[in-house]
């Protein structure tokens, strides 16, 4: 242990004691040492106790020891107890009289240690540490001693005491500097802690103010943070009798079907803890009919090395929006059904009129044909509305040749393409088998080819191609038409969406075809995507399941 550490430990111990106890603790080593020195010299007791100077020195030692206990040092100031080590130096000086103990002067080191460890100014401390021991030996140097011996006696003990004092003062200075540095660090840490707590309170207030649920989880799925909105949401989905803080796996969560519980691996927090990133994932909390529909999204947390260390999940209630959409679909479905019956009757009667066109004038026939064409267009629009209002698209997959479906679709669109000066081409292997519903896929192909022709107002070409990859078939419908912006492409599959450029032009439509097509493709477990640039045409890609491999025999 270094001197600095020793001083620091001693000061830490003595700072917890009262002034009297500290004074007694500092005085006892000298008193014990004096008693030990006397007891170690029984042959000289007669001489010692017959010397009045030595007896006076013993009296001074006794007075100093008693003063440590009797005098109320706590009332006299911080430096008042230093009178005791000064008195000790005087007593040691008298103890080294010619009739006393000749080697007792070395004990002056003990009061020097006491003085050096005090708060006395450095100059005074060093002066006392040198001249105090010097004065204890100076009167008793033999007159007949040689000059070198005198110098050695005069300098050895005072020099040693001064060196001890310097070492202790330096260690004390270093200890105080270290204490100030620690106190400054502690003050800084306290300020940082206070700022951190203030930021934590601010974050908690913000999280509890927003009307969305927020949960942060670590990589193991343990919760790091949950705001009050999310806590209330989870309480509404707790099973009867469950305690607060129920694990997500026990909450009453369902998906699109409100009757079927959501599988544990499909629950938002489980997906987020596995590192999955998702958005607009709809989940129902609680039992119907009072369940709450929530849109969930998750984003992963990364450490400094880019590794996954957790995730943040956001829960936004969309119950009102989902109910409003359901009401809208009901209205659309009801109105469409009401329109469909009279439209069918109108078209049927127009067909009957055109069947007797020989009795009609050319002008009348032309007007009836216009009425028939617009009625058929309106009936097609009503059919699309009915399809868009249907919550679920039912498909019946079977082994189907996609090449023949594409040929039929291009053949039925040939007249429309010819009128629009659009060239239809295809490049597919024959046959191209897939596990799909031929009726629904034909409907999807008709929608994509019709759109490709319709949105090529200046003519051009529409090309259908295919590719395969890992059990999937990719159908590409590519046109060289007007294209669209990236922002429009993000919303192109939304029901009733039509880009501003299309709405301002003469191109007809209700914005339902692509949403219906996407629903059909997703009903097969596939996907529909679009790549486009303004003025450079668009490419729609259908990803469909390929035909299952035949079993091996």
- Rg estimate, integer Å: 50 Å
Count of individual beta strands: 13
> Number of helical segments?
18
- Helix proportion range: 40-55%
Low-confidence stretches: 549-553
Average of pLDDT? 81
Q: Kindly report the spatial arrangement of strands forming the biggest sheet.
A: 2-1-6-5-4-3
Question: What is the structural class?
Answer: alpha+beta
> What does the largest sheet look like?
6 strands, antiparallel
User: What's the end-to-end separation, in Å?
Assistant: 84 Å
- Beta percentage is 15-25%
General form: rod-shaped
Write the layout of secondary structure elements.
Elements (H helix, E strand, L loop, with lengths): L2 H12 L4 H21 L5 H4 L3 H19 L12 H13 L13 H8 L5 H16 L9 H63 L3 E6 L4 E4 L1 H9 L16 E2 L13 H6 L4 E8 L6 E11 L5 E10 L1 H37 L6 H28 L8 E4 H11 L1 H6 L2 E6 L5 E4 L1 H17 L5 E10 L2 E8 L6 H5 L9 H5 L8 H11 L3 E6 L5 E8 L8
Helix pairs in contact: 1-8, 2-4, 4-5, 5-6, 5-7, 6-7, 6-8, 7-8, 11-12, 13-15, 15-18
Protein described:
The chain has 553 residues and is of the alpha+beta class. It is 53% helix and 16% strand. It has 18 helices and 13 strands. It has helices at 3-14, 19-39, 45-48, 52-70, 83-95, 109-116, 122-137, 147-209, 228-236, 268-273, 319-355, 362-389, 402-412, 414-419, 438-454, 486-490, 500-504, 513-523; strands at residues 213-218, 223-226, 253-254, 278-285, 292-302, 308-317, 398-401, 422-427, 433-436, 460-469, 472-479, 527-532, 538-545. The strands form three sheets. Strands 2-1-6-5-4-3 form a six-stranded antiparallel beta sheet. It is rod-shaped and about 165 Å long. The two termini are 84 Å apart. Residues 549-553 have low confidence and may be disordered.
């Amino acid at each position: 242990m270094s001197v600095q550490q020793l001083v620091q430990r001693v000061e830490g111990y003595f700072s917890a004691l009262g002034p009297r106890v500290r004074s007694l603790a500092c005085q006892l080593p000298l008193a014990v040492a004096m008693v030990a020195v006397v007891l170690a010299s029984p042959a000289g007791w007669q001489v010692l106790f017959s010397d009045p100077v030595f007896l006076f020195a013993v009296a001074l030692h006794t007075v100093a020891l008693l003063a440590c206990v009797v005098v109320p040092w706590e009332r006299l100031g911080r430096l008042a107890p230093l009178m005791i080590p000064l008195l000790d130096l005087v007593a040691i000086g008298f103890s080294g009289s010619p009739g006393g103990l000749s080697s007792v002067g070395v004990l002056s080191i003990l009061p020097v240690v006491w003085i050096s460890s005090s708060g006395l100014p450095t100059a005074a401390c060093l002066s006392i540490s040198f001249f105090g021991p010097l004065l204890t030996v100076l009167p008793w140097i033999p007159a007949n001693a040689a000059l070198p011996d005198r110098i050695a006696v005069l300098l050895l003990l005072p020099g040693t005491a001064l060196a001890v004092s310097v070492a202790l003062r330096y260690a004390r200075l270093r200890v105080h500097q270290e204490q100030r540095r620690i106190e400054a660090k502690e003050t800084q840490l306290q300020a940082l802690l206070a700022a951190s707590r203030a930021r934590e309170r601010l974050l908690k207030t913000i999280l509890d103010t927003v009307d969305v649920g927020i949960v942060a989880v670590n990589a193991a799925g343990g919760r790091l943070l949950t705001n009050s909105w999310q806590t209330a949401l989870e309480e509404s989905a707790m099973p009867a009798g469950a305690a607060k803080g129920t694990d997500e796996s026990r909450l009453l969560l369902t998906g699109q079907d409100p009757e079927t519980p959501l599988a544990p691996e499909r629950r938002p927090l489980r997906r987020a803890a596995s590192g999955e990133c998702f958005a607009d994932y709809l989940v129902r909390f609680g039992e119907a009919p009072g369940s709450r529909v929530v849109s969930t999204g998750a984003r992963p947390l990364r450490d400094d090395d880019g590794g996954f260390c957790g995730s943040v999940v956001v829960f936004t209630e969309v119950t009102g929006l989902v109910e409003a959409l359901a009401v809208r679909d009901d209205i659309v479905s009801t109105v469409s059904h009401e329109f469909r019956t009279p439209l069918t009757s109108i078209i049927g009667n127009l067909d009957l009129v055109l069947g007797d066109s020989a009795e009609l004038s050319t002008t009348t026939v032309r007007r009836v044909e216009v009425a028939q064409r617009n009625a058929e267009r309106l009936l097609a629009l009503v059919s699309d509305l009915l399809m868009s209002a249907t919550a679920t698209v039912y498909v019946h997959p079977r082994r189907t040749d996609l090449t023949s479906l594409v040929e039929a679709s291009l053949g039925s669109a040939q007249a429309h393409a010819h009128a629009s000066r659009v060239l239809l081409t295809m490049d597919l292997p024959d046959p191209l088998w897939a596990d799909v519903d031929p009726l629904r896929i034909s409907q999807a192909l008709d929608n994509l080819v019709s759109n490709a022709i319709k949105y090529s107002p200046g003519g051009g070409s529409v090309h259908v191609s295919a590719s395969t990859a890992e059990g999937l078939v990719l159908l590409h419908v590519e046109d060289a038409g007007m294209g669209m912006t990236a922002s429009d492409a993000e919303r192109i599959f939304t029901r009733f969406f039509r880009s501003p450029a299309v709405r301002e032009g003469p191109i007809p439509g209700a914005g339902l075809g692509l949403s219906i097509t996407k629903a059909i493709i997703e009903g097969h477990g596939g996907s529909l995507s679009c790549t486009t640039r303004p003025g450079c045409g668009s490419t729609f890609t259908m990803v469909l399941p390929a035909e299952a491999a035949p079993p091996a025999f």
